[in-house]
Write a structure and sequence with these properties.
The chain has 327 residues and is α+β, with helices and mostly antiparallel strands. Helix content is 55%, strand content 8%. A 4-stranded mixed β-sheet has the order 4-5-7-6, with helices on both faces. The structure holds zinc ion (2 copies). One zinc ion (ZN) binds next to helix 6 and helix 10.
């Protein structure tokens, strides 16, 4: 779009981006169509809340807390994870992505850099490194231990709107804010090893030696639930439940998402909620893990976000009227 351009001084035709603070000149009077020249998000006079001191316990999903507590009761889990990440660790992650992916900076993919800044300033998180990797799998993930790295697959970004890309980045920043990074990195490693091609690698037997079957199962069971907390963090950044819903719909519907009806998708999520059976879902996780899905069950995740908004918790944190999904 070429109807906007950043300017240095405020005048009657300027609007300050509520997300990144950039001053933009608009030709359409900010009618809701113009986008910020820096972060590419929609310009609007609506406020955007930045959380000064957000406590993770204010948004962590109870299923995440329970699964993490269960994980932590396994004897030796912390030392095993520490050992695992010593051999597969941080420097390896950084080397892999620095060698194979595009590093996002203020000059490289600056709109993505601006979105990362928006997510970090909203949640109050130090900026991690962000990479874009050419990969046909629609995915994003966070790894690392002391210095987290976020990786976005190119297919994901190409498929999503600017607001939806913000939601994905915010979800990943949520993993950092929620202090998931050590465990989520270990879980991603296990997921990668579930892939047949990689399972043959020497590292697979090493992992099997370090982590017991119980540890692996508990870690993966927790990782599914950790997603629910980070979807909430993403909502605290986008501040629009529909953006989360549409992002999930695209994760679900793939390239057909443009033809999928969003209202029907929300109905499906609400139906899912009505028939929700946590125990049946628990039994199903093992199969899901074997199928190698790293961000499974978008419909379930949307139903959880709808429930959180409807509980009033989201509105309380945002401190005003929550925009309701498809109200
Ligand atoms: Zn902006
Ligand atoms: Zn995640």
């Amino acid at each position: 779009m070429s109807d906007i351009q950043p300017v240095n001084e405020q005048n009657n035709d300027t609007i300050r981006c509520r997300y990144c603070g950039q001053l933009n000149q608009t030709r359409d009077g900010g009618n809701g169509q113009a986008r910020c020249g820096r972060c590419r998000l929609t310009l609007s006079g609506e406020p955007h809340k930045k959380f000064a001191e957000l406590d993770k316990h204010e948004y962590i999903h109870p299923a995440d807390s329970r699964a993490l507590a269960a994980l932590k009761t396994i004897p030796g889990i912390d030392s095993a994870l520490k050992k695992l990440l010593e051999v597969t660790g941080e420097s390896v992650i950084r080397v892999i992505f620095t060698a194979s992916a595009v590093k996002v900076t203020p000059k490289q993919c600056p709109d993505l850099y601006a979105k990362l800044q928006v997510a970090c300033t909203t949640l109050g998180v130090d900026m991690p490194e962000l990479f874009v990797q050419q990969n046909p799998t629609v995915n994003a993930f966070t790894g690392g231990v002391k210095h987290p790295v976020i990786v976005l697959h190119s297919q994901l970004i190409e498929r999503l709107s600017d607001e939806e890309v913000l939601a994905v980045i915010a979800h990943e920043v949520g993993h950092i804010h929620a202090e998931h990074v050590l465990y989520i990195t270990a879980a991603h490693l296990l997921e990668a090893l579930a892939n047949v091609a990689i399972a043959a690698a020497p590292i697979a037997s090493l992992v099997a030696q370090i982590l017991s079957g119980t540890m692996r199962a508990a870690l993966l069971a927790w990782a599914r639930r950790a997603e629910l907390s980070c979807d909430r963090a993403a909502l605290l950044v986008t501040q629009n439940p529909d953006v989360i819903g549409r992002t999930m719909m695209k994760l679900c519907g793939g390239t057909y998402a443009s033809k999928v009806d969003y209202e029907q998708f929300l109905e499906q999520a609400r139906d899912f909620q009505k028939n929700y059976d946590a125990k049946a879902l628990d039994r199903f996780w093992a199969d899901i893990i074997n199928a190698g899905l790293t961000h499974p069950f978008p419909v379930w995740r949307v139903s959880e976000i709808l429930a959180w908004v409807e509980s009033g918790e989201y509105g309380r944190l945002i401190g005003g009227e929550a925009e309701s999904a498809a109200a």
